[in-house]
Amino acid sequence: MEVTTAMLADAASVENGKLYVHGGAWSVINTREIPVTHPSMALALVFRVEYTEALEDHPIAIELLDEDDHPIGPRIDGIIHVGHPPRMVPGTPSFVPQAIRFNMIRFEREGGYRFRVAVREEEVASVQFRVLRSPQQQAQ
């Protein structure tokens, strides 16, 4: 299993097997003050599950880490389980979109952060971003 798409967005959802992303692919949270509580963000992911990996449980873990790889906040554990749709040609992979929303995450300091995505404890994606105090705000 691999992750083919991984990004941060203002919002994301999955409906009828399709990933909808609003305000995606950003990597900086600009703020006036530190600490800051960010009101809402989404982690948009697409997993590629090979035909031979289907019909198995795949434990996943998503956690927010600081730039020293210390956990700072939400950790989500789950399972991805994919079947074989009718008339699927053997050997064809399945693509599983996921949208994970996070509300009111508090960042205590400026710097780098990342969402680590692991399948069976092996990292398969890392979505990095920074929290920065806006230069205009620092001068005031």
Please explain how this structure is put together.
The protein has 140 residues and is mainly beta. The protein has a single domain (2-139), classed as Macroglobulin (MG2) domain (Immunoglobulin-like), CATH 2.60.40. The protein has one helix and nine strands. The protein has one helix spanning 135-139; strands at 2-15, 18-24, 28-31, 36-49, 57-66, 71-81, 94-107, 111-119, 122-133. A hairpin with a 4-residue loop joins strand 5 (57-66) and strand 6.
Strand content bin: over 45%
Q: Low-confidence stretches at least 5 residues in length (pLDDT < 50)?
A: none
Q: Measure the end-to-end span.
A: 49 Å
Note the run of SSEs as H and E: EEEEEEEEEH
Instruction: Please estimate the helix content.
Output: under 10%
Total tally of structural domains: 1
Mean pLDDT: 95
Count of helices? 1
CATH architecture: Sandwich
What spatial form do the alpha-carbon principal axes imply? Answer: elongated
> How are the strands of the biggest sheet laid out side by side?
3-9-8-5-6
Radius of gyration: 17 Å
Total count of strands = 9
CATH topology: Immunoglobulin-like
CATH superfamily: Macroglobulin (MG2) domain
CATH class: Mainly Beta
Structural class: mainly beta
Largest sheet: 5 strands, mixed
